[in-house]
Each structure stands twice: as C-alpha cells, then as structure tokens.
C-alpha cells in the first residue's frame, strides 16, 4: 500500500512522552470547549504518524490494531470517525480537516461522470484526503445498492426485495449479493446500506417493496445475501460491508405509515420483526441501521434498550450501528437542530456512526461539547470507535484504501444481467390462468399495451438512478416489451400501443403491462389502499372491448386491489419490480420457464382490507404462498 508508505518518518513516541502529550491534548480540548480558536489547536497531536505503529501491521490481530490506534487518537479524531457526511456537502479539504470517518451517497447523489471510472475517481479523491490525516485512517464510503448498484448508470438492476421474496430461493439471493458486491467494489466503494430486512405487515407502506415479505421466515432465510455481499468473511476481493436495516419494526407501524409508530407488544416485535436481524447477526453482518420509526411512541434512534441491550447484548452484535438520514434530529419531535439532548441520547442509546448528511459540522461541535460536559462518557466514544475501526481493519482498508480499477467491466456485465433475468423469472407469480398461458412462442399476433410495457424506469421502481426513481429510459436494460418481441419474432408479430389503441379481434392475445409508477420511502405511502390508476383502467377497458383474451402483467411494488378486474381478464401475473432484465417476464409468459413464484404477501380482497397477513382472521383474495404454475 504505497500511500501510507510515504510517511513522514517519525520514531514511535515513548509511552511516557505519549502520556504527557495526552494530558496536554486534554487541556487543549478544554480550552477549545471554552470557545477559543478551536480548529487551530484541536489536533495538538498525541504523536506524529509512525509507519511502524502496530495498527499498521496487517499481521497483527484486529483487536490489537484497534487498541493501538485508539490509544493514539484525539477526541476530535474519534468524533470524526463517528461522523458520516453526504458527498455533496463536503468541499475540498473537509475530510482531512475534520478527520471524517465516513461519507455516503444519498439516493441519486452521483458524481458528474456517472460511470464506474467516475465513481472510482471520486472515491479516490476523498480517500486521498482521508489518508492525509495525521493517523491516515481511511474513510468508509456507503451507498444504497438495494437492488443492484442502483445509482450507477448501466449497472445491473435486480428485482426489488419483494420479488426476491417470491422466489423463496436463498441461494439465488446469495449469488445476487455477490454480484452486487462485485459491482459496488468495481466502483471503489466499501459499504452497502442493504439488505432491508423489514417485515412489511401493511402494503399501504411505501417501502413494502424493500421487504422480502410479510412473514419473518422469508427475510430470515434471505440473510444469505449478507454472506453474498460480505463474503465468508470481510476483506475478500469483492467484499462490501452489509447493513441490516431498519432496526426494528419499520414494517409494523400503524396503518403502514412510513417513519410511523409500531404500536405492538414487545412479544410481537420479537416474533415478527426481530428474527431477520437475529439471522443477519448470525451471518456476521457488519453494520445495522436504525429505523426512523418508533416503538410504542419511543423513537428507535433513542432506544437504548433495543439498540444496546437487545441488539448488542442479547443478539451479540459486534459490528457498528449507523443512524438513518438526519434521524437523530427527529428525537425531540422538532426538525430544527441537533440539540445536545438529541445527540447525547442517540450516542448513549448505542448509535456508533451518525448519518448527518448536511449539518455534520454542527453535529461534531455538539457531540464534542456533550463529551466535554460529561453527558456522553468517553467509554461510549471509545466503544463506537472500536466497532467502526474493527470493520475498517477487517475490510482490509488500511492495506488497500484506494479503488481497485481492474473491474469496471463488471458493472452491468452480461453474467450479472443473466443472473438478474433468472431472478426475474423465478419471481413471477401466476395468480390467474384461464388456459391462455403459456403463450405460444414465435407464432401468432400479440398485442402489447400498458404504460409499463416499454419503460425501464417503471419496471425498476424507486431507488433507481434517483431516490424516488422515475419513468422512462433511465438506464440500460431490456423492457418487458422487448422481451416479448424476442420471444415472438420472427414467426409472429407484436404490436404495441401504450393505451391500447389499435387493438382488434385479429389478435390472439393482449398483454396489459400496468400497475404502479416509481416511488420510494414516504412518497409511496397509500393510506387509502393500493389501487389501479384511471389510465390503467382505461387501457384495460380498451383491450376488453376488442374481445381478445387479456393477460395482465402487474408491475408493482406490492399487491394492488384487482378484485373488480379479475373476472374480466384471462390471465394475471404479479411481476413485482423486475429491474432492467424485462426478458425474464417474457420467459415465463411464453413458457420457456414454468412459473414457480409464491406470494410473499397476502393479496388483499379490497383496498380497505389492509393490514391482512397470514395467520389472521381475514380472507384475502389470494393467500400468502399462493402461486399457480403450468
Ligand atoms: C433511508 C435509508 C437509506 C438512507 C441513505 C434514508 O432516508 O431510510 O434506507 O439507507 O436514507 O440514503
Ligand atoms: C436522499 C436519500 C435520503 C432522503 C431522506 C434524499 O435527498 O437522496 O438518500 O434517503 O433524502 O429524506
């Protein structure tokens, strides 16, 4: 690792001298707290950089390296490690000046050159700044690669978790984790804010598609993705730090409200929402992200019992806990400032790294004051640092801090797209078939309609290129229409019109690709239930009037109320949010692969029936686990 070897040569300070310096540093910190020219004095060092320091010796055990490094760090350096800023909110020199421990890309926060090389260049720029700090501790860069490396143009977009839940195939999901980790490391990044292990109990929740399903058993079994992302252990060639999120009960809020309140007994929290986190800890997940939501009125970000006692104590989680986007600012119910009470409550509750995207300077100042005032014990700061630094060592970041530029071509590679297509096939759930499916390949006249038939953006959903996602040709891939054409032509003909105009009796079948358009957290909440829009109902009406059999392919992040339409259509397939490989949908429609997908959620009989879950007294339209085949 060349960067570190350009060290300013300095002998290891003798312990006694170091102690003296520590005391001096302590005095300086007190002065700084008194409000004097703080940034000029803060890093009166406890020893210059020492290239022979034990923490730089990769042959030593991680625990020893952590202890050694921690012993050299000032309070400000420790607070820096606990601080995560957004890439748009730092300017040249900040990472060095504030010794920032981590950066992130929020949804859609991309370098101006949104290519693998553009990302690697950006990453290396920040890392060079981190390595210019006194102790040369690398920064760790996190991103939401929640269904592929989804901010990157040209990356493979896999089905969202709800579709993966329908596959019931943990080994497939593990391989997807490996592919995602490869695409993420190919761009230089270290850390993925995935998997979401939320157990969605109410489909009105806008994050339902980030859930593997309503039964904890599915999400628990899918924690194979943690091994896929991290490797058998951290530090392998394509290993990224995984994040189990959002701890805990985010899918159990009243009325499926995002960032809402799970008003349930602890017994139910433990039975429904905790098990996937237990499984993730068992699989060695390196980080856990806390949920914006509350548990019986108490915000999770201040929940010492659930974070420190249950997660770190009972479950034995040894990685680090990261907060969600500005979430600590919500602790007192007012989004205004990181108040001293909010900051100390969050850190004392057990949060180790704090996602403070924009106002990270404010956070640093408040936490410093709270430590100096004795409101946050030094042992808590040290514990947080131990946890963060251990992961950086385990990832091999001190040995290989810079982006590995040998794998740009892995991003959106043919092999990953083939894996994604397989996942799409396996995620299709056949809900109705009056004998019209499978369609005959390479013969006949097929009509395709619907606003999601030829739309990569719609079939990918939220968290694709941008935070909320958007319609249109937003990245490379195969639309469902293109997949249908591949299956039919030559031999047959495919006619397409989004609203169904032009359909007539001469067609053998009409495929209507309808459903939801992209949304993400918060904006996707549908308190009145999930229904078809008028434009989709109009398309269906046009097709039905022509008197041809209609197969509905529903592109959606969750069950949609289709009870009124069901008797009028001859086939219904839940395609979920398949991502960029739309041909996988056609593979099933045309019988190249028989459907095997099973519902990961109960399908409500009416929009008003939510919440409806397996084991309750209600009768859904299709039960949990339902799925036909041929
Ligand atoms: C979301 C997280 C995400 C984070 C960073 C938050 O708003 O709740 O799931 O990891 O933003 O983008
Ligand atoms: C970011 C997301 C984040 C959200 C939180 C957006 O601007 O892109 O990553 O989750 O803000 O409100």
TrEMBL record:
It comes from the Bacteria. One of its GO terms (biological process) is glucan catabolic process. Coiled coil: none annotated. It is an enzyme of class 3 (hydrolase). Residues 429-630 form the Glycoside hydrolase family 3 C-terminal domain. It holds the Pfam family Glyco_hydro_3. The keyword Signal applies. Keywords: Glycosidase, Hydrolase, Membrane, Signal, Transmembrane, Transmembrane helix. It comes from Catellatospora coxensis. Residues 74-389 form the Glycoside hydrolase family 3 N-terminal domain. GO terms for molecular function: beta-glucosidase activity. It catalyses: Hydrolysis of terminal, non-reducing beta-D-glucosyl residues with release of beta-D-glucose. Belongs to the glycosyl hydrolase 3 family. Its EC number is 3.2.1.21. The chain crosses the membrane at residues 22-40. The lineage of its organism: Bacteria, Bacillati, Actinomycetota, Actinomycetes, Micromonosporales. This is beta-glucosidase.
